[in-house]
């Protein structure tokens, strides 16, 4: 983080301190000299507070956060405070994001990438939700908790509508054969010929996001059944399910790199199988299998002798190398020696570092069986025909492409891990402190602005607060998507889906805990419906396809005003709330 941002944060805090200390000094000076003059001046200066109307209206009392932070009851004054506190929350979120990325560079994925990063990313939202209902009387908490629900719904909707659609636009590439071509953007804003593609793991992330709305459904069941007796119990059950899903999601994130590497290894293995079978079929003077599906021993023995150049009755590594030449291993980031190792591992069952005739026939038979079990695009072709093997080889190449293999990317080493770790911890601490300190004043400012303008606090928090807590994520995602590559697009959309999942699990858990412990009433049917519609629509849509033409961004944009309008109609026209 740059020194300028640190300096600006310090200046803002200093201004607040100056206002408070100046006010206290003036007030105290009147007590030191009671000549009637200084006390009069002190009282005159005392009224120069933020809770006085900017236009010169009458002063109204307000409750200062922590007893000293500025407060106001006027609309214009609260706009100023929302901007200031919102900017400080944005800084807190930025510090948390920067510190998390530094830790990721040092420690890599796994525990850090799977557990701490998602939790830290949702921390500002969780803080705001917590303070919205933790203090004051039950009646006051019930009225303020709508700020937390507005933030929860607003963050979710903003990330997978406005930010999602913007990433589609800035990351668009030409679509050819249903796949966006990296770094090729010549078709302008073609609604069907331009768009983005993501890998299979991004589709999995979208599926998880859609499933993460389950706790909302559980909590909403009593309202759906028009029952009032089981509402408190449903909140507890929803909380337990939400926490269970949160733990499961974090465990999945921790083990995902291992799962991904195993899946990539399997796809590379299938690519070698299909490539070698193609080479064998091209060299063979007959079919590799009989009409009954059994291996054609005569043809395979002739193939063995053709490959055995020194005619010693065994195939060495050098002789097997001829089978992997021409497979285009660079398409799947596989070295030639690694492909030969895969051949030896499957064929050399005696482990004597050479392949006998019987081992060669058994290995080819095994691979033909695996190829026959694969879902190739042309099932009408025989499993040992060139067309079938060509289709299978192309299928494995495409599958590898959509798995998003990053093994060819260079990994930058951290020059000074110790200082980087210290910087990361300091950024995380600073971000956490800022989020914890200024969450409560921001919620108070939103409530005061709502009272001054008669605008429901839900809509203020739905629109304004996500800009403070999610702006750093949004800007980072848009910048990364602009690289116009499948890998960058996959990471961008995966982070968006992951952020929404954490909103639906971690932030909802905090919200449900507040409702249950403080005995609040769950009365957010329209808000829950909006979250369900947006998450399910985008989640299911993104889970069944990996390429998104430009027209899909327009649909995403339209979901945002639709969500706002739906809540307004249901709450204020049909009386749901």
From TrEMBL:
Residues 1-22 form the signal peptide. GO terms for biological process: sodium ion transport. It is found in: Cell membrane. Gene3D superfamilies: EF-hand (1.10.238.10), NCX, central ion-binding region (1.20.1420.30). The keyword Hydrolase does not apply. Keywords: Antiport, Calcium, Calcium transport, Cell membrane, Ion transport, Membrane, Metal-binding, Repeat, Signal, Sodium, Sodium transport, Stress response, Transmembrane, Transmembrane helix, Transport. One of its GO terms (molecular function) is calcium:proton antiporter activity. The keyword Nuclease does not apply. It is a multi-pass membrane protein. GO terms for cellular component: plasma membrane; vacuolar membrane. Residues 295-330, 335-370 form the EF-hand domain. It holds the Pfam family Na_Ca_ex. The chain crosses the membrane at residues 75-95, 102-123, 143-170, 233-255, 420-439, 459-481, 493-518, 524-544, 551-570. SUPFAM superfamilies: EF-hand (SSF47473). Belongs to the Ca(2+):cation antiporter (CaCA) (TC 2.A.19) family. This is EF-hand domain-containing protein. It comes from Solanum stoloniferum.
């Amino acid at each position: 983080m740059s020194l300028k941002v640190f300096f600006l944060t310090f200046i803002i805090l200093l201004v607040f301190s100056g206002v408070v200390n100046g006010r206290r000094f003036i007030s105290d000076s009147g007590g030191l000299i009671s000549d009637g003059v200084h006390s009069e001046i002190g009282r005159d200066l005392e009224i120069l507070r933020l809770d006085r109307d900017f236009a010169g209206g009458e002063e109204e009392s307000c409750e200062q956060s922590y007893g000293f932070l500025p407060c106001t009851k006027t609309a214009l004054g609260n706009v100023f405070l929302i901007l200031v506190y919102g900017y400080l929350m944005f800084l807190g979120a930025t510090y948390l994001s920067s510190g998390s990325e530094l830790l990721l560079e040092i420690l890599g994925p796994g525990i850090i990438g799977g557990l701490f990063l998602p939790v830290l990313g949702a921390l500002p939202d969780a803080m705001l939700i917590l303070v919205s209902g933790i203090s004051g009387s039950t009646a006051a908490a019930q009225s303020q908790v709508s700020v937390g629900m507005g933030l929860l719904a607003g963050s979710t909707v903003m990330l997978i509508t406005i930010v999602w659609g913007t990433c589609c636009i800035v990351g668009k590439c030409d679509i050819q054969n249903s796949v966006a071509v990296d770094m090729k953007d010549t078709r302008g804003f073609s609604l069907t010929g331009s768009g983005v593609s993501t890998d299979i793991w991004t589709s999995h992330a979208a599926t998880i996001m859609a499933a993460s709305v389950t706790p909302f459904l559980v909590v909403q069941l009593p309202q759906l059944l028009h029952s009032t007796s089981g509402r408190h119990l449903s909140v507890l059950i929803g909380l337990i399910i939400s926490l269970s899903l949160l733990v499961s999601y974090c465990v999945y994130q921790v083990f995902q790199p291992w799962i991904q590497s195993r899946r990539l290894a399997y796809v590379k293995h299938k690519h070698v199988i299909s490539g070698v079978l193609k080479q064998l079929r091209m060299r063979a003077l007959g079919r590799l299998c009989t009409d009954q599906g059994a291996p054609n021993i005569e043809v395979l023995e002739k193939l063995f002798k053709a490959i055995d150049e020194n005619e010693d009755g065994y195939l060495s590594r050098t002789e097997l190398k001829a089978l992997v030449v021409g497979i285009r291993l660079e398409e799947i980031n596989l070295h030639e020696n690694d492909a030969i190792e895969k051949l030896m591992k499957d064929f050399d069952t005696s482990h004597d570092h050479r392949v006998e005739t019987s081992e060669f026939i058994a290995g080819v038979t095994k691979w033909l069986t695996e190829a026959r079990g694969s879902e190739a695009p042309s099932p009408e072709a025989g499993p040992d025909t060139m067309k079938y093997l060509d289709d299978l080889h192309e299928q494995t190449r495409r599958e590898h492409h959509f798995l998003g293999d990053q093994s060819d990317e260079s990994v930058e080493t951290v020059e000074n891990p110790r200082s980087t770790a210290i910087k990361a911890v300091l950024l995380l601490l600073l971000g956490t402190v800022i989020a914890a300190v200024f969450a409560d004043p921001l919620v108070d400012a939103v409530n005061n602005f709502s009272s001054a303008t008669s605008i429901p606090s839900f809509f203020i928090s739905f629109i304004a607060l996500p800009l403070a807590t999610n702006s750093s994520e949004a800007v980072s995602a848009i910048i990364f998507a602009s690289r116009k590559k499948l890998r960058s697009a996959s990471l961008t959309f995966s982070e968006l889906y992951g952020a929404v999942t954490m909103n639906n699990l971690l932030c909802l858990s905090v919200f449900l805990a507040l409702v249950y412990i403080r005995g609040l009433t769950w009365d957010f049917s329209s808000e829950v419906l909006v979250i369900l519609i947006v998450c399910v629509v985008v989640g299911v849509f993104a889970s069944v396809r990996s390429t998104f033409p430009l027209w899909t961004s327009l649909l995403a944009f339209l979901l945002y005003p639709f969500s706002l309008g739906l809540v307004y109609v249901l709450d204020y026209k049909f009386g749901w709330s």
